[in-house]
Amino acid sequence: xxxxxxxxxxxxxxxxxxxxxxxxxxxxxxxxxxxxxxxxxxxxxxxxxxxxxxxxxxxxxxxxxxxxxxxxxxxxxxxxxxxxxxxxxxxxxxxxxxxxxxxxxxxxxxxxxxxxxxxxxxxxxxxxxxxxxxxxxxxxxxxxxxxxxxxxxxxxxxxxxxxxxxxxxxxxxxxxxxxxxxxxxxxxxxxxxxxxxxxxxxxxxxxxxxxxxxxxxxxxxxxxxxxxxxxxxxxxxxxxxxxxxxxxxxxxxxxxxxxxxxxxxxxxxxxxxxxxxxxxxxxxxxxxxxxxxxxxxxxxxxxxxxxxxxxxxxxxxxxxxxxxxxxxxxxxxxxxxxxxxxxxxxxxxxxxxxx
Length: 355
Prior knowledge:
By secondary structure, the chain is of the alpha/beta class. It folds into two domains: 6-85, Orthogonal Bundle (DNA polymerase, domain 1); 93-354, TIM Barrel, CATH 3.20.20. Helix content is 42%, strand content 10%. The chain has helices at residues 6-19, 24-38, 42-51, 62-72, 78-85, 93-101, 119-128, 151-165, 192-197, 213-225, 267-276, 294-302, 322-331, 345-354; strands at residues 104-108, 133-136, 173-181, 200-204, 231-232, 280-284, 306-310. It has a seven-stranded parallel β-sheet with strand order 1-2-3-4-5-6-7. Helix 1 (6-19) runs parallel beside helix 5 and helix 10 packs parallel to helix 11 (267-276). It is elongated. Residues 244-251 have low confidence and may be disordered.
């Protein structure tokens, strides 16, 4: 047997496919094969590979079986080698420096709401990327299409996260959070007692995106003034057409390649409120969002706002999408010291607690 881990190679391929925005079925093929092999001992996997019986396992096809066999023989699977050779161009120097300054991600989802992977899988992918923390921000109850968390489910998740943090590698932690819906009157869609217990709260508008500008502005400013909100998520709600319709992760409802215009609101009033209350404006890194657009990032910077460069990841490979947000932030002149997730976890949570 070789020193290579075929299951790790399968997961690495899935990660790279997600990061490259490849179609969901390709990602699922490698993740399913990894899950099937994880249920067997290393000896059983090697024996099946020798006897050509890997494809008898549900979830293992010809391509994934070939990758496993190559890995067991001590060679880097050809599929993985091709992916690594075609990853694309490096970021420019400023964006690279900004990405290197980030210590974590403040907006991520798991299979507790509309993400496609367990919390622990998201956390371990963040560890591999060099993060020091991951803020878990599954959806709130009103967003039923995304299986938003009721108060009881959120309490259970907090207990689960506490157990996971005791088992994760030293120096890394999952921070508790939520992506809470900003309701029509500007209130937040979760019990205030629970919101007060969380490390970081992202607030986003998911409904009534075509409200008239004055109504939308009041709604957002009211939410920003709420002491429980820390980060204003994807503030315009727009969808751009840079992501093909077939590229959707498990549970990525609402991210299906359609376009959607920006919500109309008084950006100067909203960003002034963020600066006044010391709340961060999210630079959402999802390729189909690119929210806010660069002109609004510049206005938020001029208003004195802080920022959070987040992935809004719904799958492990999407955690590496921060580079897209860093590229846009760098082009707008956002310095690392104005980005809250360039801070250590303790400073981030202390800042959020002050609200």
